[in-house]
């Protein structure tokens, strides 16, 4: 009986987690890869297969955005937005003041998430003898892995994406049947891990 009381809440939480979050991760990882490819095509007029993997995914995009959503939410919903709403009510702030602080705060948090993600992933791959990007041409950079202008850009872009496109994605994925979502997530996860190991062996 006690075991069932423990497993039931876990099942209620893990079922939507397994059904939704992996697919969000893969969609955003693909869109990140697509953005990188289009950016290189626009800047240099040539196709560059961006990222470390053979598959068309940049996992750092999916990882940062999904972690941000799980830990903070979106600019409109989540613990940070609710906390500011309560704080604004206690302080008697105007609704527009609360909204400004909500978006500015989310921008800073997004910037930190992206910067930490780039730094950690960059250091890991450099320890493996692989350099995936370099910001040495930008000011205020650290080892070419992170820099202030790019961090500010990521903060702005993530805030905008999480406010509108991400919320549309959430609503669209709610319509996907659970069995299909879980099956697709498992297949993509296995293929991604195999691809990652394969790419590591080529270093």
Sequence of strands across the biggest β-sheet: 1-2
Spatial extent as radius of gyration: 19 Å
Mean pLDDT level = 85
Poorly predicted ranges: 1-13
The description of the largest β-sheet is: 2 strands, antiparallel
**How many β-strand runs?**
2
Structural features, described:
The protein is an all-alpha fold. It has helices spanning 2-44, 59-71, 79-91, 95-127, 148-163, 165-173, 178-201; strands spanning 141-142, 146-147. It has a two-stranded antiparallel ribbon with strand order 1-2. Strand 1 (141-142) and strand 2 form a beta hairpin. Helix 3 runs antiparallel to helix 4 (95-127). The longest helix has 43 residues, at 2-44. It is globular and about 60 Å long. The termini are far apart.
Please summarize what this structure is.
The protein has 203 residues and is mainly α. It contains seven helices and two strands; from the N terminus they run ααααββααα.
Topology (elements, then pairings):
Elements: H1 2-44, H2 59-71, H3 79-91, H4 95-127, E1 141-142, E2 146-147, H5 148-163, H6 165-173, H7 178-201
Antiparallel strand pairs: 1-2
Helix pairs in contact: 1-2, 1-7, 2-4, 3-4, 4-5
